Amino acid sequence: MTLTITGLRVAIRDTQILSGIELALHKGQVHGLAGESGSGKTMTGFAVLGLLPHGARASGRIELAGRDLLGLPDKELNRVRGNDIAMVFQDPSTSLHPMLTVGRQLTEHMRPHLGLGKAEARERALELLTKVRIPNPAEAYRRYPHQFSGGMRQRIAVAVALACDPQVLIADEPTTALDVTVQAGILRLLRGLCDELGLAVLLITHDLGVMSAIADEVSVLRDGLVVESGARKSVLRTPTHPYTRSLLEDLP
Amino acid sequence: MSQLPLAVKRLSVTVKRLPAALRRLPEAWRRPQAVAGAVVALAWLLVAAAAPLLAPYDPLAQELPRLAEPGPGHWFGTDQLGRDILSRVLYGARVSIPLTLLLVALSVLIGGFLGGVAGYFGRWADEVIMRFADLVFAFPTIILAMVVAAALGASLTNAVLAVLVVAWASYARVGRGLVLAVREREFVLSGRLLGFSVWRSLRVDVLPNVVGPVLVLATLDMGTALLLLSGLSFLGLGAKPPSAEWGAMVASGMEVFDSWWVATFPGLAILTVVLAFNFLGDTLRDALDPRTARAVKERAL
Amino acid sequence: MTSTQNRVRRRNGPLPTFHVRGPILGFLARRPLLRFLARRILVAILLAWGITLVTFVLTNLVPGDPVAANLGQRAVGDPVAVAQWRAEHGLDKSLPQQYLLFLEGLLHGDLGTSQQSHRPVSEDLAEFVPATLELAGAAILVSLVLGVAFGLIAALRRDRLADHVLRMLSLIGVSVPTFWLALLAFYVFFYRLQLTPGSGRVDPAIGAPPPVTGLHTVDAALAGRWDIFTSALGHLIVPALVLSLYTIGLLTRFTRSAVLEVLGQDYVRAGRAKGLSGRVILFRYVLRSALVPIITVAGLAFGSLLSGTVLVEAIFAWQGVGQYAYKSATALDLPAIMGVGLVVSGVYLAINLLVDVLYGVIDPRVRLR
């Protein structure tokens, strides 16, 4: 068991956002987190990395390798962020720094996390670009995000997330902002990396189609609570909770 | 140079959110800043209205001891001609405040009209008007105003005209942007399709949506206009000597700068009025949608 | 889409596509930044020309009579003297002819002769422009450093005490009448405390440094005359601070809102998710992106500084363009006014150009496509 979330509650001022989330991520498995917008999917992801918005309070337990991330001081949490747990965001056109080269964004966290020198970091970055199938990595290393297409940018964002060999990858709606034609490519990439590197992936999405394509396990979130959880087949084929059923019925 | 696409994008958002802004207004009004601004501005309006009742002396009478320090009898002291400075500051409100209001009102009307015409009719009208506005923007305001004031001859009326020459341009930009944003919205288009005339669609559909942001800008501009106007008077290009205009009073204080009170109190008067309107404008702007707020702020430069 | 992106799009604009490329256009087409600059310079030149035209029309349409302003009321009664004076200054020709003559002179770098100083306007300007640039330059430096620092602090301490205090101070800063503040500063620092020298640019007993740039502080440092440098700096400090108060307020307010906007951006959160240190996030992620709107405002603020110098120079007897403009305007000295207009708008346009270049340096989206 790689990452375990138990009884996670988050409140912003008087509003309860999450009211006791239970989740477990396993090595080499994709865990899909489904739910409508506002159900608390993204907040769950942010809570894991300690990126909750200003004024939010979290309680419960988020355990990684025997440590509770919620209790960590910011400095130690910074060693976990990007290093043990990495994140891929929804829209690669806003989640990459527009003014830094791709190479810079790939290597800037390798140096503190992995203690690599400049040349080593560059080498590793080129490997990563190859791994996420960016054509001509040496050229891409020098370029800026706006010079790539949306799908390519998301591949770069995945490479950035994988730069420090994390155990856990949180992918927050990684295909929502992309063209339908490139969505499948990104999903296949994620699935492949998960198998190849033994990543534990938390795939946050509202799209049950995406979910059924690559998830091993599925949890359904509603109003800050997991209403149903289990293997993909059983959840999607024989849902027990009426909410899951209604979600499935809404599918075209 | 034209700032158009920016303004259009932002201000189209404005229009949608105006009702929300109006709802947020009461909350904004409770902020101490807004209360302070409103109280001070109202106080000055009262002073302007009731100066003859409030002032202890005739502002022009040279009957007191010269350059007397502030103290009982004349709280703000007297100037080098033996006039009571408190009375002159109070009477100064009757000169500066109505003129500033008039100035801003005229800028809004003229600039707004020209900008509206440019935005609504587009093409050559747009080009001609907005290129003129660009020229005005490229020129340091006070130097342009100075040339106009000097050429027309030093008088308060001409100073107002001079400031008007530079002040209309920012309203032209805002007005144009707003009209462009509103023009393309569905209800305007549908009105036009229903066969309403150009003027009717401008008056009924466009104008009400444009008023809010322009009002914010105008409030913020009160301060700028007063600073510019009193600056021209300070340079001797506005109010003539005996007149109790604040900028001119500061200038006369320069001649006797060791008597600090002569220049200090009229300057404080300018500061408080400008500050009050800036407080108000700031609050109004915050009550608007944040994105509009920024658009208005950029224009206000 | 964020405002920055919008601005970038606008600045970058749809560039004309050329179907037939000559050697120059071909060269420019391969270098987007150069092409971008070439276009900006062309616009700047057109605008400068427009300004001469407007100044000319404005100063000629108005009822003021330069003859009366320069020769005095008595001489106006003497037709011979008036006619001679008008011929001397080319005022006997028709207006379009006068304007063409002015343009022709302009091409040779000749701005005409000032009716006030009886010297070539270009000579006058060469003397006064550096003085104003020194004052305004010092003021914009101070404003940038303090304004950006204050704005950053206010944004990072949002809704806490420091934020409230800085916002209030910045609002006061943009509300103070510059001329009044200048007078107060003069009274307090020179007359009362005797901390600073009163007026002028340098102690006349020491004298000006050998002119290289025309900026006394720089010239003194270049010549190694530290006594002059101290004196020049002492004269500069109070007027520059007075002048900068307004722009400090302006930049504080703008930096605050620019930083707040960037703090909400996805890539800042992504940077934090990568485990970058607070310092890296602050400088490389937040400040660098906020710099684009900040330099835009700084460019505009420089324009307002140039306006402010007219008032500040009057009080500190600073022999700069502001004073010259004031004297020329009150005397309706047409060549001098035109000269000032050209120079000042030239400086303003140069600043705008600099801002554009800085965009390109800071933001690769402007530079590369």
UniProtKB/TrEMBL annotation, chain A:
Q: What family does the database annotate?
A: Belongs to the ABC transporter superfamily.
Q: Where is the ABC transporter domain?
A: 3-248
Give the protein name, as stated in the record. Answer: ABC transporter ATP-binding protein
Instruction: Show the SMART domains listed in the entry.
Output: AAA
GO CC terms for this protein? Answer: plasma membrane
UniProt KW Phosphoprotein keyword: no
* CDD domains per UniProt: ABC_NikE_OppD_transporters (cd03257)
Q: Which UniProt keywords apply?
A: ATP-binding, Cell membrane, Membrane, Nucleotide-binding, Transport
Membrane topology listed for this record? Peripheral membrane protein
Q: GO MF annotations for this entry?
A: ATP binding; ATP hydrolysis activity
Per UniProt, subcellular location reads as: Cell membrane
Where is this protein primarily located? membrane
Top-level taxon of origin: Bacteria
Output the Pfam families linked to this UniProt entry: ABC_tran
The record, for InterPro entries, names: AAA+_ATPase (IPR003593), ABC_Ni/Peptide_Import (IPR050388), ABC_transporter-like_ATP-bd (IPR003439), ABC_transporter-like_CS (IPR017871), P-loop_NTPase (IPR027417)
From TrEMBL, chain B:
TM stretches of this protein: 34-55, 97-120, 132-153, 159-182, 210-239, 259-281
Which InterPro entries does the UniProt record give?
Answer: BP-dependent_transpt_permease, MetI-like, MetI-like_sf, OppC_N
- Keywords, in A-Z order: Cell membrane, Membrane, Transmembrane, Transmembrane helix, Transport
Its main localization is: membrane
What cellular component terms from Gene Ontology apply here?
plasma membrane
Q: Residue ranges of the ABC transmembrane type-1 domain?
A: 97-281
Recorded hits in CDD domains, A to Z, give: TM_PBP2
Membrane topology of the entry? Multi-pass membrane protein
User: Where does this protein reside within or beyond the cell?
Assistant: Cell membrane
- Superkingdom: Bacteria
Give the GO biological process terms: transmembrane transport
State the family named in the UniProt similarity comment for this chain.
Belongs to the binding-protein-dependent transport system permease family.
What is the protein name given in its UniProt record? Answer: ABC transporter permease
Protein species of origin: Streptomyces mesophilus
Automatic annotation (TrEMBL), chain C:
The molecular function terms of the Gene Ontology recorded here are:
dipeptide transmembrane transporter activity
Stated membrane topology is:
Multi-pass membrane protein
Using the record's annotation, list all stretches that form the ABC transmembrane type-1 domain.
129-359
Q: Which keywords does UniProt give here? A: Cell membrane, Membrane, Transmembrane, Transmembrane helix, Transport
> Which residue spans traverse the membrane?
41-62, 135-156, 168-190, 232-251, 291-316, 336-362
Say which domain of life the source belongs to: Bacteria
One GO cellular component this record assigns the protein to is: plasma membrane
Residues annotated as coiled-coil are: none
What Gene3D superfamilies does UniProt report for this protein, alphabetically?
Answer: MetI-like
One Pfam family recorded for the sequence: BPD_transp_1
Q: What is its main location?
A: membrane
Localization recorded for this chain is: Cell membrane
State the similarity comment: Belongs to the binding-protein-dependent transport system permease family.
Report what the protein is called: ABC transporter permease
**Organism, scientific name:** Streptomyces mesophilus
